[in-house]
Amino acid sequence: MATITLTQENFEETVTGDGITLIDFWAEWCGPCKMFGPIFEAASEQFPDVKFAKVDTEAEQGIAGFFQIQSIPTVFVFRDGVPLGGKPGAMSAAGLTEFIQMVREIDMDEVRKDIAEAEAAAANSPDA
């Protein structure tokens, strides 16, 4: 599977839904991004069940700003439409494989329970 170029227009439809979506935040001028790009692309072929997407931080500053990307490359992950966080820095092929495996092992029922509890606590807070 080839990587998807993320823009404001296709962002929502790409990251929502079932499964894992990995987003590589990068820029053309970034040396580590250029080294990591082929690793990310190769992983997209190795893991056809995972969506691989790329955000050019220069072209899509709104998306990069929303996610508070402060260093590139950064890989941000969604699973089942839920944002799980990011990992800054270039990874080796083995490191990216390990990262994907770690994401697969996350108990999403537990994550959704934690989110619901946090939302309930925020709704019941005196500041709400």
UniProtKB/TrEMBL annotation:
InterPro entries: Thioredoxin (IPR005746), Thioredoxin-like_sf (IPR036249), Thioredoxin_CS (IPR017937), Thioredoxin_domain (IPR013766). Gene3D superfamilies: Glutaredoxin. Residues 1-105 form the Thioredoxin domain. GO terms for molecular function: protein-disulfide reductase activity. GO terms for cellular component: cytosol. Keywords: Disulfide bond, Electron transport, Redox-active center, Transport. Transmembrane segments: none annotated. This is Unannotated protein.
